[in-house]
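Lab channel / #folding
Pinned by the channel admin:
"Please post every new chain as: sequence first, then the structure tokens as a reply. Keep commentary short and put observations after the output so the thread stays searchable."

First post following the new format, from NK:
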Amino acid sequence: MHPNPLFRTDDHAQMRATVERIGFGMIFLTTPQGPRVAHTPLLWTGEDRLRFHLARGNALVRHLDGATALATVNGAHGYVSPRWYENRDTVPTWDYVAIELEGLVRRLDDAELDGLLYDLIDTHEDRLEGERWNASEASEDMWNGLFKAIVGFELEVREWRPTYKLSQKRSASEREAIAAGLAVGGNEELAATIRGLAG
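Reply from TO:
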């Protein structure tokens, strides 16, 4: 989390929406073998609970149950050039959205993991255009084989540490110039995020 309070929020609904929209993050834990990270889809299952699954062979699997772990989600980000400032006598920076969620992890039972998989499929298939794929199209052998190769977890969020660093120190006209410059450079997502904060 960025130390400047200007870049923080206590709006849990906003943070949940950001995580839900992105739907993917990283789980960090220090193990006896050292720090480890896993990359995984994430799904909210309540106000403060995130579910995810990992390959059974992942280095984190045998250490997560009962541990306090950190989930991070990275949103829009990009280089901000001084060329977009009214006074160019400064240095570049990087604007970004990042959310850290710390909490206690528990292992899911098979029924909960099965439900998580169906919920993930529904969530992401519904976002795509065209004819959707349904889990019933996977054979029982295929589903069961893959199911045995993964382990599900739930992280109960106890600490929310967001950073929405979106040029808040700059004037409204500079923020619009930054957004316009980012958009021209192809970073429409960050441009829209900056404009959304201003609105």
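NK: The chain has one domain: 5-169.
TO: also worth noting, The mean pLDDT is 95.
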